[in-house]
Specification:
two-stranded antiparallel ribbon; 11 helices; alpha/beta
């Protein structure tokens, strides 16, 4: 039996399936992995298209739309494979993309998740926002990547072609060990979408597991397929989920969240000056919703702190806002001498 499944979560994504699934089928070696589409109760022709045009692809039909986190949790629980590649439906595969990822998990049992080098499908010379060459967090919980800091996305000049330990692997294309994924709670389905993979990876890293980027594996990602970057709903989910993630995982969460109140106020002010009133409302709605969720998140926080054995690799000791906005640093390489970069 194959030990790896490439699992694509789909909801009304017939256009994406037609465009990108052919490359996944073509470049996923049949002797290594099965390709599975887990369908979140689509109401379009997704299932018919899969049956008619992709007979080799397995399907798993869920009874309703559980979102990104809930959909993957339910699918992974039902699929009996050792390794699962969570792959977005808007990803274009390349020849040889899977083998280096599987090899890395085979090589080291402490490596729980790996990601490829993720480039932009619309401009293949550039890194892609959602994961680039592996993710990190600054001291206040803001995510950034090798190849992308805030909105500054670098051109891929092979500057990040070395394999690297990271704090988080991108939910657009993350290979995980199924047992460890399930044993450590999987994705938090209260997040629905956005940053749930960072929350999971923080949890795994603090419990002693390693996460890595393997740039010899390359995939191209469209990004923004669920919600457009300018959509206030996306702003809401990113702000709320980021606060939830900090509270669940950070040892000094209360201190960080106090500072984040002022930083979020600054972000809302910037949105206001830009005339983006929807995003202003989204920031404050996110804070209200987070406050309501704190009681139920307390149990998760207590468990996470109890199981924490180390400071997570890639949790930096600097502020990305200070380094980029005040000190003019634009790239990951500009930052690498700023922090001790806890890679122990």
């Amino acid at each position: 039996m194959k030990k790896t499944a490439v699992v694509i979560l789909n909801y009304n994504g017939e256009k994406m399936l037609k465009q990108f699934l052919p490359s996944v089928v073509e470049y996923t070696p049949e002797n290594i992995a099965d390709v599975v589409v887990a369908d979140n109760a689509s109401t379009d022709r997704s299932l018919e298209i899969l049956k008619e045009q992709f007979p080799s692809v397995k399907t798993l039909v869920l009874d309703k739309n559980y979102g990104f986190a809930g959909g993957y949790n339910r699918a992974i629980a039902q699929l009996d494979y050792e390794y699962i590649l969570l792959l977005n439906s808007d990803v274009e595969a390349t020849e040889g993309y899977l083998e280096p990822l599987v090899k890395e998990l085979d090589k080291d049992s402490k490596v729980v998740s790996v990601q490829p080098k993720l480039l932009a499908q619309k401009d293949k010379s550039k890194f892609e926002y959602a994961g680039a060459a592996g993710g990190f967090l600054d001291k206040y919980g803001y995510p950034f990547c090798r190849g992308r800091i805030f909105e500054n996305v670098e051109t891929d000049n092979h500057q990040y072609d070395e394999e690297s330990d990271v704090l988080w692997t991108t939910g657009a294309a993350m290979l995980v060990r199924r047992k460890e994924y399930l044993d450590n709670g999987g994705l938090d389905d209260r997040f629905f979408a956005h940053q749930e993979e960072i929350d999971l990876c923080w949890r795994l890293s603090s419990r002693g597991y390693k996460l890595r980027c393997i740039p010899s594996s390359i995939l191209y990602h469209v990004g923004g397929g669920t919600l457009d970057a300018s959509n206030p709903r996306k702003t809401f989910l990113n702000f709320r989920n980021n606060l939830c993630m900090i509270y669940k995982n950070a040892v000094d969460a209360n201190k960080i969240l106090l500072i984040r109140f002022f930083l979020d106020y600054m972000a809302a002010t910037v949105y206001l000056l830009k005339g983006e009133t929807g995003n202003v409302k989204a920031v404050w709605k996110a804070r209200r919703e987070f406050s309501k969720m704190k009681t139920e998140l307390k149990k998760d926080r207590d468990e996470n702190l109890r199981k924490t054995v180390r400071k997570p690799t890639g949790l930096m000791d600097f502020s990305i806002i200070v380094q980029t906005k005040l000190r003019g640093k634009k790239t990951y390489r500009d930052l690498i001498n700023v922090s001790s970069m806890n890679f122990n």
